[in-house]
């Protein structure tokens, strides 16, 4: 019975650790939405990037450092090459999220508004 309780407890902790960043992200989105009320799209995007770029950059660098370190330290060639590949992907991902994604959101804003249910009117 103790193993069952431990397993349930572990599953609950895993669920909470996965759910926590999602909740934080939704709170940040609400705060940014309230702060950006009344601004046009470009000003809102610049303000949001200034607010969030550092955290995106830091989390990407942490993932890069961890995967690069494991890749450099590993004696198993397959593990090393996979970790090196993931570390490159982390850097590319950070660059795309900070540069390309905001541009795509600006370009396709009207399409997103039209295809999203319960979306406020687009400006």
Please tell me about this protein's structure.
The protein is an all-alpha fold and 123 residues long. It is 85% helix and 0% strand. The protein is built from four helices and no strands. The mean pLDDT is 76.
Uncertain segments of ≥5 residues (pLDDT<50)? none
Strand content: under 5%
Multimeric state: single chain
The percentage helix is over 70%
Alpha carbon gap, first and last residue:
59 Å
Q: State the major sheet.
A: none
Number of helices: 4
Overall mean pLDDT score? 76
Quick overview of this protein structure:
85% of the residues lie in helices and 0% in strands.
Write the layout of secondary structure elements.
Elements: H1 2-35, H2 41-73, H3 77-107, H4 109-115
What distinguishing features does this structure have?
123 residues; mainly alpha; elongated
């Amino acid at each position: 019975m103790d193993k069952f309780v431990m397993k349930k407890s572990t599953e609950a902790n895993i669920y909470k650790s996965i759910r926590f960043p999602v909740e934080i992200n939704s709170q940040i989105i609400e705060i940014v939405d309230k702060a950006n009320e009344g601004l046009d799209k470009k000003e809102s995007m610049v303000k949001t990037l200034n607010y969030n770029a550092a955290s995106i950059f830091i989390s990407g660098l942490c993932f890069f450092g961890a995967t690069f370190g494991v890749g450099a330290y590993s004696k198993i060639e397959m593990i090393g090459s996979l970790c090196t590949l993931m570390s490159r992907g982390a850097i590319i991902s950070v660059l795309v999220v900070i540069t390309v994604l905001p541009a795509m959101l600006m370009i396709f804003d009207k399409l997103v508004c039209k295809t999203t249910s319960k979306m406020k009117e687009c400006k």
